[in-house]
């Protein structure tokens, strides 16, 4: 179930990883990033995408995988902002990195998402996004409308 | 056939760059493929001249690369594009610095003729690709072109068939699965990658427009190097009913460059030239220094 208050949204979902609750604070100020809704299927499961910074340990794990794929030395300084292309990755490298991330985090990345990852941060965000899981709800799409009305965009 | 302009270089000094030797545009159905081997460009003064050709945005892009080798290769890539496109300017000499580039709505780089002072608008298309050890640029007229190069020895970190199952089409997986030797299988995987990349880049609409598992590139029976593209329609409940649409709209030329790389060129077929074979002229170059004709190949 999901609950929405004026300042925070938190949700639990059945997922296979160890991550359980993720809460992101929404503020009315400009620090709020974006909220977008995935496609609806007839089963009324929706995927909620929220831009929050990924956990440092996720960023670290992604960095390790990138270093291995691109054969970088262990002491290469990588930050969350590091761009794959600046490290010498081509499209085949990017796809291999995505495959390694899928294996490591037990997730499944859609091809369009796979090609859009350009930095370590983006990869980490996608991983966290996918490990949050799905919200199931029954009822009409009024729930959706309430959500969009309550949260300023 | 080598053309050397070293004497011209020695005469002109730092301020003015030497003249570029002009080139005739490719004719329809011809692709000109140019490549540079970074290891053959060692002169720091030459590299400095190259950096003078770049726009500020391009220079920033080069600076963003991590490490000297990546910076050098990024510089060579932009230099190759600018000097090559400039040389095809007929009627007048165009300073490669004056060329402007833009991206189409999907992000594919193209020449911005309108904003280039002193340029003649030309129906010229180009595409680049590079690895650590080779940088290539393909040029066509009237039809879009896509190229891709890969190091022959490139090792795939994952199991090749697992990788193919994840990203390639079912028919391509079946083809790769028939190859018993792992090394031969890896090579075919790489060749197929270059062909698929070349197609997506020729299409110019980004990867989302043509996910790798939605099309099959397969060799044409009875030919050694003929390849055709078949699109798999949406997967139906019964995989046996998956229909394929194979058309001749896209032509492919698989090549090897410098004994070290697989390359693929893909062009959109020009209806006006129905039936005519595709021709690829390969030349190695060091901008401002020399050109070397490598081969002229015909692909049916």
TrEMBL record, chain A:
Key words, A-Z? Chloroplast, Fatty acid biosynthesis, Fatty acid metabolism, Lipid biosynthesis, Lipid metabolism, Phosphopantetheine, Phosphoprotein, Plastid, Transit peptide
Q: Name the Gene Ontology molecular function terms of this record.
A: acyl carrier activity; phosphopantetheine binding
Q: Gene3D superfamilies of this UniProt entry?
A: ACP-like
Entry-linked InterPro entries = ACP, ACP-like_sf, ACP_chloroplastic, PKS_PP-bd, PP-bd_ACP, Ppantetheine_attach_site
> This protein's superkingdom?
Eukaryota
Protein localization? Plastid, Chloroplast
UniProt name for this protein: Acyl carrier protein
The text of the family note is:
Belongs to the acyl carrier protein (ACP) family.
> What is its pathway?
Lipid metabolism; fatty acid biosynthesis
- Please provide an example of a Pfam family that matches this protein in its UniProt record: PP-binding
HAMAP family, alphabetically?
Answer: Acyl_carrier
SMART domains, per database record:
PKS_PP (SM00823)
Function description: Carrier of the growing fatty acid chain in fatty acid biosynthesis.
Has the keyword Lipid biosynthesis been applied to this entry?
yes
Q: Which NCBIfam families match?
A: acyl_carrier, PRK00982.1-2
User: Where does the protein principally reside?
Assistant: plastid
- PROSITE patterns associated with the record: CARRIER (PS50075), PHOSPHOPANTETHEINE (PS00012)
Q: Which gene encodes it?
A: BnaA08g14550D
From TrEMBL, chain B:
- Identify a single GO molecular function assigned to this protein: holo-[acyl-carrier-protein] synthase activity
Gene Ontology terms: biological process: lysine biosynthetic process via aminoadipic acid
State if Transferase is listed as a keyword.
Answer: yes
EC number(s) given by UniProt: 2.7.8.7
Sequence ranges assigned to domain 4'-phosphopantetheinyl transferase N-terminal in this UniProt record: 48-136
Q: Which UniProt keywords apply?
A: Transferase
Record's protein name? holo-[acyl-carrier-protein] synthase
Species of origin reads Brassica napus
């Amino acid at each position: 179930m999901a609950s929405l208050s004026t300042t925070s949204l938190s949700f639990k979902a059945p997922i296979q990883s160890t991550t359980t609750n993720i809460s992101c604070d929404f503020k009315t100020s400009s620090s709020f990033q974006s909220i977008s809704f995935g496609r609806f299927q007839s089963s009324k499961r929706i995927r909620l995408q929220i831009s929050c910074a990924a956990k440092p340990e996720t960023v670290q794990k992604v960095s390790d995988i990138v270093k291995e794929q691109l054969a970088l030395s262990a002491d290469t300084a990588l930050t969350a902002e590091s761009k794959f292309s600046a490290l010498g990755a081509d499209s085949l490298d990017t796809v291999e990195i995505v495959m390694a991330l899928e294996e490591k985090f037990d997730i499944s990345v859609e091809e369009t998402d796979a090609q859009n990852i350009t930095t370590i941060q983006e990869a980490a965000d996608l991983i966290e996004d996918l490990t949050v899981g799905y919200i199931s709800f029954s009822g009409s799409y009024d729930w959706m409308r309430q959500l969009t009305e309550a949260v300023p965009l | 056939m080598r053309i050397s302009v070293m004497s011209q270089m020695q005469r002109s000094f730092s301020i003015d760059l030497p003249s570029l030797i002009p080139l005739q545009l490719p004719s329809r159905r011809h692709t000109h493929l140019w490549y540079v081997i970074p290891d053959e460009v060692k002169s720091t003064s030459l590299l400095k001249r190259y950096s003078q050709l770049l726009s500020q945005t391009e220079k920033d892009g080069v600076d963003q690369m991590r490490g000297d080798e990546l910076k050098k290769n990024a510089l060579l890539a932009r230099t190759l594009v600018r000097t090559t496109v400039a040389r095809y300017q007929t009627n007048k000499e165009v300073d490669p610095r004056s060329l402007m580039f833009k991206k189409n709505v999907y992000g594919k780089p193209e020449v911005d003729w309108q904003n280039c002072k002193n340029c003649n608008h030309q129906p010229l298309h180009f595409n680049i690709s590079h690895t650590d050890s080779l940088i290539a640029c393909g040029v066509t007229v009237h039809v879009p072109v896509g190229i891709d190069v890969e190091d022959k020895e490139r090792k795939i970190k994952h199991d090749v068939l697992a990788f193919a199952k994840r990203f390639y089409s079912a028919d391509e997986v079946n083809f790769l699965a028939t190859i018993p030797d792992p090394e031969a299988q890896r090579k075919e995987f790489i060749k197929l990658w270059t062909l698929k990349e070349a197609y997506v880049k020729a299409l110019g609409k980004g990867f989302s427009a043509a996910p790798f598992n939605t099309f099959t590139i397969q060799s044409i029976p009875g030919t050694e190097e003929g390849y055709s593209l078949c699109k798999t329609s949406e997967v139906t409940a019964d995989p046996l009913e998956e229909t394929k649409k194979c058309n001749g709209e896209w032509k492919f030329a698989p090549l090897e460059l410098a004994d070290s790389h697989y390359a693929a060129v893909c062009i959109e077929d020009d209806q006006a030239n129905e039936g005519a074979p595709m021709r690829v002229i390969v030349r190695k170059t060091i901008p401002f220094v020399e050109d070397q004709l490598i081969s002229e190949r015909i692909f049916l």
